[in-house]
Amino acid sequence: MHTHVNSVGLLVCTDPALNFSTPLHIPRACLDALPQQPGVYIFRDEAGVSVYIGNSVNIRQRVLSHLRTPEEAQLLARTHHIEHERTGGEIGALLREAQLIKAHQPVFNSKLRRIREMCSIRLGVALPEVVFAKDVDFGRTEGLFGLFQTPQAARETLRGLAQEAGLCSVMTGLEKGAPGRPCFARQIRRCQGACTGEESAADHAARVQAALAPLRVMPWPYPGPIAIVEKSDGLRQRQLVDNWCYLGTRRPRGKAPARFDVDVYRILVKPLFQGILTIEQLG
């Protein structure tokens, strides 16, 4: 509970739990138990099935905000109980939320609900090519650019970059062509002539690399698994991650090698390379 003194000197309670009407079908006890620390929360229906899973650095505040949002009336009508699980910090909450959503597929979670088969653009071969995570280990492969849900999305991105940078549509694999013949972009003066030999293949390849550089997929920077250590109000947790795959808080045994998880990658790539996380490398 939080209090402050108002302008006329009265002590005012600012606990959000006292500023809303609890839906009658949701037990007040499960709301009173909500902590003001990081973690995940689970809205369950009458049968105990997860209908929504979220995360917050302040579980109590976030859950109560759901109960005060008219647009979420349908979710609240389905909810008969709310559970929570504390984590050591924000990163742990994000990782645990993504893991639970994949496992339980709640009906009101759409962003992370589907387990997606990702593809990427790979350089290092004759022409840029679209490759899939099921065939290539994205976490341990250099020369990958962009994470896409469909090959069409990957090709459209490459096409847009080619137009912006004046790349050759034949040398980028977007158009079939015979040696020495100008591509369509060259015919309308939007290609610098790699297809006709007026630009060297090396120079063109360097420009392709530069155009794709902002989309680079960062390989896993460690030789094996790591623990991300977080602390919050007496709770210390180690979140285990390997190859951009979340392993949980305890090291699993007898499981298949960790495979690249796009959601874990997006959660961790910036803070990991910014050096703002406490890391323990595991043997």
Automatic annotation (TrEMBL):
Domain of life assignment: Bacteria
Keyword check for Nuclease: yes
Upper taxonomic lineage: Bacteria, Pseudomonadati, Pseudomonadota, Betaproteobacteria, Burkholderiales
Name of protein: Excinuclease cho
Keywords: DNA damage, DNA excision, DNA repair, Endonuclease, Excision nuclease, Hydrolase, Nuclease, SOS response
Origin species: Pseudoduganella armeniaca
Record domain GIY-YIG: where: 36-110
Classification via InterPro entries: GIY-YIG_endonuc, GIY-YIG_endonuc_sf, GIY-YIG_UvrC_Cho, UvrABC_protein_C
An example Gene Ontology molecular-function term: endonuclease activity
SMART domains, alphabetized: GIYc
UniProt keyword annotation of S-adenosyl-L-methionine present: no
Gene Ontology BP, a term: nucleotide-excision repair
GO CC annotation terms, alphabetical: excinuclease repair complex
